[in-house]
Predict the structure.
Amino acid sequence: MQIEQDRLDLQHHLFLLTLRGKLHLAPIENMQLHNVMDIGTGTGIWAADFGIIPLSFVFFSNLSHLASAFPSANVLGTDLSPIQPE
Amino acid sequence: MSSPSIVNSLPLTLSSVPPNCHFEIDDAEDEWAFSYKFEYIHGRTLAWCFKSHVTVFQSAFNALQPGGWLEVQDIVIPSRCIDDSMPGTAFERWIDLIKEGCIALGRDFGRVPQYKQYLQEIGFVDVVEKQLAWPIGTWARTRRMKMLGAWCKENVLSGLQGWTMAVLTRGLGMTLAEVELLLMEVRNDINSSALHAYVSDVSISI
């Protein structure tokens, strides 16, 4: 189980590298986002990053396009499995 | 979606969750019962999650504010090859067995290429499909593709057993030992620079 969760986090990083640091491609940058949902959130890593990107990520990655955090939005992650942190 | 609850006691993979982010245990195929609408709904790698993707996309459509966006980032199954390096490999045999196993189990993992059509039929407008690819391994030419390929290879190698075991044992009646033997050969193929396989990704924004 932990192996799969580690893989999901690795896959998240693969998506970030692919999208050059962005969490989305939809043109939402200039929208007022109040409520955001992540379906099948898994470990919750996308939802947490979308809320605000952790400092550790900024320091330890070479990604220069860290424009994806939306600290003003409420982000809800849903999943069948309770593998998200509190 | 009737009785959401905030959970969890399992080992944490995130070191911190921002205060504006929370989680609920829900089955997205059940009726959605949120008292508010969303401006943006995101879903990633949902290819094997649902009996009916149309049901989930329809619920998302109903739960979006006018002008809101749904974005789905997903992986096209099965992987393909850029050349003729796949025939005769264990990797090819693995793909065929996964397909057979899925059919035996009545599961359809191959709907991603139809997402755009599903969404248009539901009534989404301005549907944009963007196709991307990850090489599996470092065989591609450019530095960026080698980097993505290295990450993708790690992702495939660590996911391989989990994706395969249930499908081949329950679907096709293979033994654990038979599957392990197959996966050993598949890992060898993936680690070999002779196999030029890739994963297609599709990102759809609506």
In short: Residues 49 and 56 of chain A are 11 Å apart (CA to CA).
